Predict the 3D structure of the following.
Amino acid sequence: MKHFLTVNDIESLPDWVDEAITLKQNPYQFEDLGKHKTVCLLFFNNSLRTRLSTQKAAMNLGMEVMIMNFGNEGWILEYQDGAIMDQGTSEHIKEAAQVVSQYCDIVAIRAFPDLKDKAKDEAEEVLNGFAKYASVPVVNMESSTGHPLQALADAITLAEHNKKSRPKVVLSWAPHPKALPHAVANSFTQMMKLQDAEFIITHPKGYELNPNITKGCQIEYDQDKALKDADFVYVKNWSNYNDYGKVLNQDLNWTMTQQKLGQAKFMHCLPVRRNVVVEDAVLDGNQSLVINQAQNRTFSAQIVLKKILESL
Ligand SMILES: NCCC[C@H](NC(=O)CCC(=O)O)C(=O)O
Ligand SMILES: NC(=O)OP(=O)(O)O
């Protein structure tokens, strides 16, 4: 595997999930695989789980880890080909990506969208810029449009907690005070399309995700109907996709409550706004899988790094 950029780079979801669950029993089984290999984690945005779980995954494989917070430490990069760099950008992605490649064997990138210009965000200039110009494999640690490491951790969590041959899984939009990316919802949807499950997306009218991603998925605007007899409820806010990046709805009737959840298991990628996205009773109750999801971030990253190391 050259790069891990999207859910489509998961060669076999069931095999990778099985392998991750096995690895979890014995995380140091491949501690020699990463000897004298270095992963460089570049953050253009904040992180708690992705930063620590990817570092932990690399350490479990015996790798060295270098971390840089580009947002406030690195030079401001230029991505445009042929740019006359007489403004605010100090270094072109062409040099930056090649230079980073001199110091590591794998580079992992976190780069959120600006949520102002859809075409620019969908071009994924940071992630794709590194993929184009780096001479080492690139891993997506949440880009403008996708968070495949999260989706793989979610698939592991579903497999560990599912008791049915065809569970009902609902992706339910929730209110949020800030404009948030579509990445988590996109990758979760792409991952669910690879599962044998009844998958339903529920959100207010007008909050449709990218139709290329939800193509073939069932969309139900009535949240109560969507939630009926659900086995797993994945809650996530995203900003408006049609009126791109706008917060047009903060209706707290969409907040997940214990009553609405019923008997279902609750999932969220974290960080989560308590009593806006979901009420305390759900997060503090025993149907919540959010900490299990966070734990599985280590094993999703470990599977991805292992696959890449084996292909070097
Ligand atoms: N990596 C997991 C989620 C990251 C981001 N959430 C956030 O920015 C929440 C920030 C806040 O609640 O202030 C998102 O939705 O894509
Ligand atoms: N779920 C997740 O990616 O969390 P962080 O943004 O804290 O890394």
Observations:
- Residues 47-50, 142, 150, 269-271 surround phosphoric acid mono(formamide)ester (ligand 2) (CB under 6 Å).
- The two ends are 9 Å apart (CA to CA).
